[in-house]
Write a structure and sequence with these properties.
Chain lengths: 311, 242
């Protein structure tokens, strides 16, 4: 089977129509292992990716003032069950540019494999970027997945990140995002993760509100079940005058699983403010009893509550 | 059940006898007797701390609220061994005074939990909420207290229960809307179900067909609502025994 067909077959696993890869109006890059299968740009959007030894290096550049109508698709898959894939990508959005990125990571057959992502994102003045990353894993659970990102949000720019790993058992997941927000800028980081079997999940997200009136939100929803373990660290540092930050973490722990949350809040300016809330534990008893009082079994009630928080 | 004159009486729809409950060493219920008949609104009026909500939680089978003695039967079935969902499937339900919030679950889903054939949009309209604006909202903290309370009533209405236990259903509802809420409670009865209406407000109890006063873990009086409210007020009303 051609490598592009392998990618096409994997895309529906993360809810993406494979037809986008044939659409001339959709910028994309498709990678299998260390093979660059397909790269396509559109007017105002340059996508470049090349192999450099055991590393994939590339960039995605959106020209100033360009509003990209259709999401840029980045599709990552593996060639073999024990592949190691390491990627460095620089994203640049020029002044006033607007784009959405759909990053699809489909690793259904991975065993002892690695997917390491080092991304640098720079949003120019008033730029807007929505970055949606969807993962699909098989149930082998021995992979290492490490998406790391360093983000600079310029003056008046807005950055929205949505990470979802809801299907399969990843193995070891290490998310590490560090976002610096400039004057009047906004960063919203949302992560939804289900940790199964013996998964080890570390979710570290830092928002540094350095600009005047900068705003940040970290929202994490983690369900930990079986023998899995999750640690969530949400760091919000407010150094800018009138900066506002909020951390909202909820973890549901089922079975023998374990979970921890560490909200780190630092306020470095007297007119800045950061709030945080965290809830960790089993499904709320009152929520369960209310649903059971409408006739749902305990199992159905847990399933509904869990599906609700992961939406 | 046999009366002292030898005649046989049918057991009430909800039959509670000699119910006792001790929580953290405190005797919350002390030999409580209560009958709720099929197709009636039965108000249970009492001051704060009199044991009203405890009775509701025991009847529904909530965690941490087990009877230490006594009998509870619904439609002739002993409730004691049944879990909450088994009691619900038998036809009873409870609307909490402070309803739970559900992140990510829409009002439409919440009202459709029990496939009773009732249209969720209809149930919402009955409680005075605009289905077009509410059905796709989440049942979470973005709702006001009054909206959440109405949605709780709508969910009971949508379930078409044989017995609805409503714990302070008018809490958080403004006075102008009180008549609307009471009309919904009557609609539950008129649909063939019974309602155990727990309240500390006299004007709410007056909407019932019969009423009982609960004080210090016991039923002190049962009768027509007017008489019962008078009895309640004579005992100090919602502020307790004078």
């Amino acid at each position: 089977m051609a490598l592009l067909d392998v990618a096409r077959n994997a895309l529906p696993l993360v809810g993406v129509d494979p037809a986008v890869l044939n659409d001339a109006d959709v910028a994309h890059a498709v990678v299998l292992g260390h093979n660059v299968v397909s790269v396509h740009g559109v007017p105002g959007v340059e996508v470049a990716l090349r192999r450099n030894g055991q590393l994939l290096e590339g960039s995605v550049t959106v020209a100033p003032g360009v509003e990209v109508a259709r999401p840029i698709h980045l599709c990552f898959g593996l060639e073999g069950p024990r592949d190691v894939q390491e990627v460095r990508v620089d994203f640049q959005l020029g002044q006033g540019a607007r784009a959405r990125v759909t990053s699809c990571c489909a690793f259904p057959g991975a065993r002892d494999a690695r997917h390491l992502m080092h991304a640098t994102l720079v949003l120019g003045t008033d730029a807007v970027l929505t970055y949606n990353e969807h993962h699909h894993h098989g149930m082998h659970g021995a992979m290492i997945v490490a998406p790391h990102a360093s983000v600079r949000v310029g003056t008046g720019a807005r950055f929205f990140s949505n990470f979802a790993l809801l299907a399969g058992a990843a193995g070891k997941l290490e998310i590490d995002y560090d976002v610096a927000v400039g004057d009047d800028g906004l960063a919203e980081l949302s992560a939804r993760v289900v940790a199964r079997q013996a998964d080890e999940v570390t979710l570290k997200e830092a928002v540094r509100l350095v600009g005047v009136r900068s705003r940040g939100l970290i929202r994490s929803r983690v369900v930990v079940q079986d023998d899995a373990h999750a640690e969530v660290v949400g760091i919000t540092e407010a150094a800018g005058r009138l900066a506002r930050g909020h951390v909202d973490c909820r973890e549901i722990v089922l079975g023998r699983a374990r979970a921890g949350a560490t909200p780190v809040v630092r306020v470095l300016h007297p007119e800045a403010k950061v709030t945080h809330e965290a809830a960790i534990g089993s499904v709320d008893r009152k929520e369960l009893e209310t649903l059971m009082a409408r006739g749902l079994s305990p199992e159905q009630a847990i399933e509904l509550v869990v599906s609700g928080i992961l939406r | 059940m046999q009366r002292h004159d030898g005649a046989v009486m049918a057991e009430a729809f909800l039959h509670v006898r000699d119910l006792a409950c001790v929580i953290n060493g405190r005797h919350v219920l002390r030999g409580l007797d209560l009958d709720v008949r099929e197709g009636e609104i039965h108000a249970l009026i009492g001051a704060n701390g009199s044991g009203k909500s405890t009775l509701a939680f025991i009847l529904m089978g909530c965690d941490g609220y087990a009877a230490t003695a006594g009998v509870t039967r619904f439609k002739g079935t002993d409730l004691a061994p049944l879990a909450i969902h088994e009691r619900a499937r038998l036809g009873m339900t409870l609307a909490w005074q402070q309803p739970a919030q559900f992140e990510g679950i829409t009002v439409r889903e919440y009202l459709g939990l029990r496939r009773s054939g009732v249209d969720p949009a209809w149930a919402l309209a009955q409680v005075g909420l605009d289905p077009g604006r509410c059905l796709d909202r989440s049942v979470d903290r973005t709702l006001s207290g009054g909206e959440r309370q109405r949605i709780e009533l709508a969910s009971v209405l949508a379930m078409k229960p044989d017995l609805a236990i409503l714990d302070e259903p008018t809490a958080g509802i403004d006075l102008l809307s009180m008549a609307q809420i009471l009309a919904i409670i009557r609609a539950l009865r008129d649909g063939g179900g019974a309602v155990l209406l727990i309240t500390h407000q006299e004007e709410v109890a007056l909407a019932a067909d019969r009423a009982s006063v609960l004080d210090d873990g016991r039923i002190r009086h049962t009768g027509p609502p007017q008489d019962t409210v008078a009895h309640f007020l004579a005992r100090g009303g919602e502020h307790g025994v004078a």
